[in-house]
Amino acid sequence: MTRSIGEALAAARDGSAQEVATAAIARARDDRWGALLHVDQEGALAAAASVDTAATEGRAVGPLAGVPVVIKDNLCQRGTPTTCASKLLEGWVAPYDAHVVERLCAAGAVIVGKANLDEFAMGSSGETSAFGPTRNPCDEARVPGGSSSGSAAAVAAGIVPAALGSDTGGSVRQPAAFCGLVGLKPTYGRVSRYGLVAFASSLDQVGPIARDAASAAALFDVVAGYDPRDATSADAPRGEHVAAVARGVRGLRVGVPRDFVAGADPDVRDAFERALDRLVERGASVVDVALPHARHGVSVYYLVATAEASSNLARFDGVRFGLRVEGADLTETYERTRARFGPEVKRRILLGTYALSAGYYDAYYLRAQKVRVRIAEDFAQAFERCDVVATPTTPTVAWRLGERSDDPLQTWLQDLYTLPASLAGLPALSAPCGTGEAGLPVGFHVTGRRWDEATLLAVAGALEGER
Fold first, then answer.
1. Which fold has domain 5-244?
2. Domains of the chain, residue spans
3. Catalytic one among 4, 124, 125, 171?
4. Is there a catalytic annotation at residue 201?
5. What DSSP designation does 197 have?
6. pTM for the complete prediction?
7. SS3 state at 390
8. Which of 16, 125, 147, 151 is catalytic?
9. pLDDT tens for residues 384-438?
């Protein structure tokens, strides 16, 4: 088992990429956590063979040559199923590659399979997949977090050293926290959304999940960059993020919104405070900051994101692609087809449609957008006093499977600390910082200035080895 990208590179170099891929495929076939929806044995072995051939012939190989990875199953990969963990897309095969898939292949990575997720990336537990829940490898009776549940579980279980997920309101960072991993949501526009099945277009970002900061940085360096096919893609400076992991935090000002942090459970707050102490020992300083509008993040998100989902998911109508359930006429066919959405997806579509409906647009959606601007302004003011803003990643540790299935609001509230950064379009990262109740992992969440993922990775590097 290769625990990091560095170990996988060394194994592929000392042996062969095909040996590394074969071992990863065997682990994927033994998946007991519900982490994967599809294992691409043929494609993975072909990619590994190509890496070995290039190395034998003395040709240049990419920075991820022979590294096995998995990608969330809302990312298109030519010739493989892309289901978004929904019955509506069961059996649908993508006709093209997402931009991040193109980048992975160009870098020599070996894509082993497609990871499970909450249906259409809507969920915070990994339980809403139409093909069964994902279990947390740290405690199989617990949820792994969501929506990038399978990506996190595949890394935590040692199937692959790194994975790609997507993060709309915390879907990379929250499962990383619950599974004891590093998860990075890049600045909005840093990574192309081309080939990512849209949930909320003004929020969605693709990001890495890995066991250590250096692996997350290596994967991020490969997938980040401008793409003209995505109108929101930004031609931002690339940077050397792997090197940033080791640069330390001396002189770094860490801002903590104390009133906001008070909403976490005592065991989570204790782990968070111990992590702050370790950063201070390494030369950082802690300052108090205020995020007065952050407490409205959940309300704002579940208006903005659901409104965008209502629009984006209208394309799944049984006419153009995916499932089609015939009815007596077109209207009935449309209704029967869309009835196959799971309950969480239906709930969010209904919320978003209501928020956009005549007579309610100004009262809900437009007002939420105004508060979203205030949240971004709060961060701008905070960064006048600090370099990063720190909170716990989640208010609690991972809960038991099924424990909150009948109370969606309690599940939504788990995104309390991750949502503000998403709404502001800022980069944010979760790093392991110790354990809480029942010895379960706790995440340390840092938000940075636009394009400053390097500082976040430096914080994660400083926390490693002291968990």
1. Amidase signature (AS) enzymes (3.90.1300)
2. 5-244
3. 171
4. no
5. P
6. 0.96
7. strand
8. 147
9. 999 999 999 999 999 999 999 888 888 999 999 999 999 999 999 999 999 999 9
